[in-house]
Amino acid sequence: MGQSYRVAILGATGAVGAELLQLLESRYFPLSNLKLLASPRSAGKTVSFQGEHLPVEVVDEHAFDDVDLVLASAGGSTSKTWAQRAISAGAVVIDNSSAFRMDPKVPLIVPEVNPDDAAAHQGLIANPNCTTILMAVATYPLHRVQPIRRIVASTYQSASGAGARAMEEVRVQSRAILNDEEAIPEIFPFPLAFNLFPHNSKFDDQGYCEEEMKMVHETRKIFGVPDLRVTATCVRVPVLRAHSEALNLEFDSRFKVAQAKEILSQAPGVRIVEDWQSNYFPMPIEASGLDEVLVGRIRQDISNPHCLELWLCGDQIRKGAALNAVQIAELLIEKDLLKPAMAMAK
Ligand code: A2P
Fold it and tell me: Which CATH superfamily is domain 132-315 in?
């Protein structure tokens, strides 16, 4: 029998936490113990896993004793508070927040793209931004064959990127509007139901928001191309859980559409969805709950023969967050980079 691991989920009561639990169960992750951690708000709660009700524990400085692996999805400040403590206790942390992604000592991994970078980890691996993961899965297979020189991205991002409470806010606002009542924003700055707005992260003095700059910097790091030209416009749309993206990819010379389709049809984590006759292409409601990034409308850019256009949808909570984190954990096990002994030896 193979090894099994003592796992903690930090942020177990959140949207990504719930998906992590489901994935650990459905992918038969080799668990010997599972610890569920959250804030004092969740004290006394239980969460169901494999037919049992597991207690949620409030994270404290002893929470990571006897843990081999921490899957952290409780926001950047919580990760900053606890990651080092968990590493010192002997655990490996896979962090879903943006806190450490651009730290040169921290590998930023999409298993389909740069699995070998994981070997350099020093106890912490960062899980990339969700829009960036989806874009990387769909574009790296083409980049490998002919380097991409520039990416122009427009995103259509669901409420789930802002967590479980943001998803609930869209439901509540939708009901209010249908009842001719006022839609009151609490998590988002503006009503999202029956509306959209530029992504609600901070803007810099160049006029780009943080989400857009994550796509720029993180894609460069994941691809290992520090000068890759990327520009993005990120928009929140009233969709519950899958993100969509329109991408324009520029190459040095023409990339034949047929070849691109052939490559993407065999790419890991990608499923082509294209029926031109019936206008049937990827849609967020169909991408929700799936592991694959759905890609369609692959076509030549009529304004530039060196460019391809494509459209994708991917489950933000799944491949955009929880699944990618679990796949990183599986990769660590496969490459013998996660050892229960690391915790035992402390
Ligand atoms: P809690 O439910 O106790 O607030 P989402 O992204 O869906 O909003 O979920 C965020 C997750 O992160 C939740 O599980 C939440 O727990 C957890 N969390 C937020 N702040 C903290 C904190 N300071 N310490 C531990 N967990 C936290």
Answer: Dihydrodipicolinate Reductase; domain 2 (3.30.360.10)
